[in-house]
Design brief:
The protein is mainly α. Helices cover 82% and strands 0% of the residues. The chain starts with a helix and ends with a helix. 60% of the residues are buried. It comes from Candidatus Seongchinamella marina. Residues 1-400 form the Major facilitator superfamily (MFS) profile domain.
């Protein structure tokens, strides 16, 4: 059920990417405005609301928080189909961001109460497939709905079912006992935020891990936000066909990568805990040359074929990163630690990634025309992905020592 909620989270978030060329034409927007809309305007409210909601979730009923958040972001997504100008659309997306801030940290905390440390990456990897399935259905439904009915209808059709799902969550999902899997009694008092931040900051693993995840997200969110526009401008594809391709490449391949990435790390970890960081490092290094090939390809189908490997490997880090973060902190720090990780990840990844690609594209447009977006992505994204992989490797060097020092 939580994975289904997470899928709705990313359907509503990702829908804008496949619709943005139609929105750009209808509302007369620039690439910088689109990048702000898909990135910073959403991210700043998403991360700002995330930490106080996570603090609440560390001592309140997490099921109710998830259900209420789902209602808010789904309602605001449907409302996005009724806007008349850019300002109204920005406000609607801010509402989506505030709602979505209450989805993941409480869900992460609930999952870690059910699964032990040696199965946690697999469980959180399964949950994280919601990202990829959300992207899959966002591209698939958004592409065809836009082609036949327009972008406004797409927002309405995708947003309304989440409102009903929020009621189903309230009626069917049970709140797990906090500390269940460790068989520990948890007091009602919450851990001070300063203590959580101090615990994470003292972990050199977390410092490298959070930067690595943020840089990976910079590349991943930029890819998810701009690939449709890149393919439409440089290769003149229709949204229906393109949405189907991207649903398979970023959605289905991403789900396979994130789930089996977590499962492989759990399987390898009894031999060496550093596999939790080694796997995303290896995945990042392998993805880089294929990312370069995507933006240098002359034909659309060669470009799409080259996307398969990065699509498979881009999300491998997610389950491993979340599980490692939870293993570095105490029981009553989990939701807050997730929110802090997501704060860093989304400020750098979601806030800066799509926006900076849009700004660079605008700067290159005078000299390169329709290919400005292709070049902006080529110059930025492979280099950032390589940088991310380096920091996952650096994190692995401190992991065993930091796990031994983790609080109970």
């Amino acid at each position: 059920m939580l994975t289904l909620v997470y899928a709705f989270n990313f359907i509503d978030r990702q829908l804008l990417a496949i619709l943005q060329e139609s929105i750009k034409a209808d509302l007369s927007l620039s690439d910088s405005q689109l990048g702000l809309l898909t990135g910073f305007a959403f991210a700043i409210f998403y991360v700002t609301a995330g930490i106080p909601i996570a603090r609440w979730a560390d001592h309140a009923n997490r099921r109710n928080i998830v259900a209420g958040s789902l209602f808010i972001w789904s309602f605001m997504t449907a409302l996005s189909g009724m806007v008349q100008n850019y300002t109204q659309l920005v406000l609607a997306r801010i509402g989506v961001g505030i709602g979505e801030a209450g989805g993941s940290p409480p869900s992460h905390s609930m999952i870690s109460d059910i699964f032990p440390p040696n199965r946690r990456a697999t469980a959180l990897g399964f949950y994280s497939t919601g990202v990829s399935f959300g992207i899959l259905f966002g591209f698939l439904f958004g592409g065809w709905l836009n082609e036949y009915f327009g972008w406004r209808t797409a927002f309405l059709v995708v947003g309304i079912p989440g409102v009903f799902l929020s009621g189903l969550i309230m009626l069917t999902l049970r709140e797990p006992t906090r500390g269940l899997i460790e068989q520990k009694t948890v007091t009602a008092e919450s851990v001070p935020l300063k203590k959580v931040i101090q615990t994470l900051w003292e972990s050199r693993t977390f410092r490298h891990l959070s930067l690595a995840a943020s840089l990976n997200a910079f590349s991943g969110y930029s890819t998810a936000s701009w690939t449709a526009s890149f393919m439409i401008r440089s290769h003149e594809m229709s949204t229906g066909e393109l949405g189907t391709w991207l649903a398979i490449i970023i959605g289905l391949c991403g789900a396979i990568g994130v789930f089996f990435g977590g499962m492989a790390a759990d399987w390898l970890s009894p031999r060496d805990k550093r596999w939790y960081m080694w796997l995303p490092a290896i995945s990042g290094f392998i993805a880089v040359p294929f990312m370069v090939a995507v933006y240098l390809a002359d034909t659309p189908y060669v470009a799409l074929s080259m996307m398969l490997i990065p699509g498979l490997l881009h999300q491998v880090y997610l389950g491993n990163t979340l599980a490692t973060t939870h293993n570095l902190v105490g029981l009553k720090m989990r939701a807050t630690s997730s929110a802090i990780l997501f704060f860093i990840l989304n400020i750098i990844g979601l806030g800066c990634g799509p926006f900076l690609v849009g700004v660079l594209s605008d700067q290159l447009s005078a000299s390169h025309g329709a290919d400005s977006l292709r070049l902006a992505m080529l110059y930025l994204l492979p280099a950032v992905m390589f940088w991310s992989a380096c920091h996952f490797y650096f994190a692995s060097k401190h992991l065993r020592k930091d796990l031994e020092a983790a609080p109970a």
